[in-house]
Amino acid sequence: MKATKPRNGKLRGAAVVARAAIFLLFAPQANAFFHNSPDLEQGRAIYEAECASCHGADLEGHPDWRSANEDGTYPAPPHDASGHTWHHGDIMLRDYIKRGGQAVLDEMGVAFTSGMPAFGDRLTDEDIEAVLDYIKSTWPDGIRATQVERSATEALAP
């Protein structure tokens, strides 16, 4: 029997680590793990293009957002911490953006006239999620935590 020279342990270990890294980076679960963080820059850009004209460049909303216009609609509210966006769960917020305020409120039986148009024909679900992630990123930790709780409660509702 011929004796073989043992391989260098460091090279062998590096090769194993390299193969494991390649496997992990290209495995489907890794894609979800490594690419699941919000794209805040994309969300900001979409917000600026689609939302800022009504809700304000700094998410400040219309100054008189609590007073109805002559047609009964209310001006755009702020999306910053001073507004009420964070009072709603994610399901409702996504639906409100996608289908428009009036469709959602009518379905909920809420007697309120919304001026919020539907964006479902202009924004993908991913775009809407990016905008919401951007808006949420501006809130203080306590408000974000409250909104997360409301989203969890909303998700459990029948």
UniProtKB/TrEMBL annotation:
Q: Provide the Cytochrome c domain boundaries.
A: 38-139
Q: Where is the signal peptide?
A: 1-32
Q: Which UniProt keywords apply?
A: Electron transport, Heme, Iron, Metal-binding, Respiratory chain, Signal, Transport
Taxonomically, the superkingdom here is Bacteria
UniProt cross-references to InterPro entries, sorted A to Z? Cyt_c-like_dom, Cyt_c-like_dom_sf, Cyt_C_IC, Cytochrome_c-type_DH
> Which cofactor names does the annotation list?
heme c
Keyword Electron transport (UniProt)? yes
Presence of the UniProt keyword Transport in the record: yes
Question: What name goes with this protein?
Answer: Cytochrome c
Q: Name one GO molecular function term.
A: electron transfer activity
